């Protein structure tokens, strides 16, 4: 079925399949998790400061 397809098209297709996969989403989530936590920490700190002031 995939014999007549050029390798770069095959590669693009596999990349799309990979990006839709659970593994990719999990890795993406883990990579951005720290950023999100840091942002939330800063936000809460600021919110607490506002409330106290």
Description:
The structure is a single chain. The chain contains 2 helices and no strands. It is mostly helical and 53 residues long. The protein has one domain (7-52). The N and C termini lie far apart (68 Å). The relative contact order is 0.07. The model has no long low-confidence stretch (mean pLDDT 83).
Q: Key terms for this structure?
A:
85% helix; 0% strand; rod-shaped; 53 residues
Overview in brief:
This protein has 53 residues and is mainly α. It has two helices and no strands.
List the helices and strands and how they pair.
Layout: H1 7-20, H2 22-52
- Low-pLDDT residue spans: none
Shape: rod-shaped
How much β-strand is present in the residues?
under 5%
Helical segment count: 2
Distance, first to last CA: 68 Å
The total beta strand count reads: 0
Mean pLDDT: 83
User: SS-based structural class?
Assistant: mainly alpha
Order of helices and strands: HH
Number of domains: 1
Helical residue percent band: over 70%
> What can be said about the biggest beta sheet?
none
> In angstroms, what is the radius of gyration?
21 Å
């Amino acid at each position: 079925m995939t014999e007549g397809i050029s390798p770069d098209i095959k590669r693009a297709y596999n990349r799309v399949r990979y990006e839709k996969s659970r593994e990719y989403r999990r890795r993406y989530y883990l990579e951005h998790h720290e950023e999100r936590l840091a942002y939330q920490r800063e936000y809460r700190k600021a919110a607490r400061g506002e409330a106290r002031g």
